[in-house]
User: Fold this.
Amino acid sequence: MALMEGSGSKLGFTRTRVDCGIVGSPAWSLAEPAGMVMPWKKWAICFYDHPKAIDLGSGKIVRSWPEINSGRQVNVIEIGNPEPPSIALDPQHGRFAVADSKGVTIVSLAVG
Assistant:
């Protein structure tokens, strides 16, 4: 999976083009930066603003967690203002965690 950020807005990025590297699979664009990305099966979990599961074949959001603030950083190493929350990724087991001042939220993507 390759991510190529396009520039043009005052904030830095307007679209994210994703080439998932699957033969015969078209590249598609997101309407916002992807932020940190975790691969999981045929999804890309994007963490810009809040976690979203994107289907790699279609580019469509198949699951979203708007109640979890995962920050608006567009680079993995970015201190921003406000500082982004801590995020732990476990793609092997299909789970991630996001910490804020109230605690840690753990999301498991595995089914069954």
